[in-house]
Amino acid sequence: MERKNFYEQVYAVVRRIPRGKVTSYGRIAKMLGSPNAARAVGYALQALKDKKGSPAYDDIPWQRVVNSQGRISIVNREFGAQLQAELLREEGVIVSDDLRINLDLYLWVGLHWLEVDDILKDK
DNA sequence: ACAGTGACAACAT
DNA sequence: TATGTTGCCACTG
Q1: A40 touches strand C (CB under 7 A)
Q2: Which domains does chain A have, with CATH numbers?
Q3: Coil, strand or helix: which one is A118?
Q4: Which of A12, A44, A51, A69 has the most CB atoms at less than 10 Å from its CB?
């Protein structure tokens, strides 16, 4: 069904975002070697809702991914932004009423070596 | 093969 | 700070 590579790589990275931290779609794209594939990363996460119920994907902390402005995306607001904000608050992240997060406090910067590590594992 | 789509990002107003 | 515009990429039918 899916390419398995890109999606799985995205999930692998997301699974490594520490509890109480967040990162952006663009940063994940960069970690995977595709600096301009931010939209594709969002697309990969969106695909999760079709996989819910599947134990293999229930442990992915998708709520820890926000846009480069540290803001939960507006489109997402239509089907789960409040839920995302709620999940983040549960793990100690302060989310303002207008769904913004202070990246100076909660940003998780993935490292380069992590990229290789993940790719090797899934391949 | 090709055009449309979207949980993005950078830049210009 | 708040919109609008444009470029991107992976995936789909």
Answers
A1: yes
A2: 6-116 (1.10.10.10)
A3: helix
A4: A44
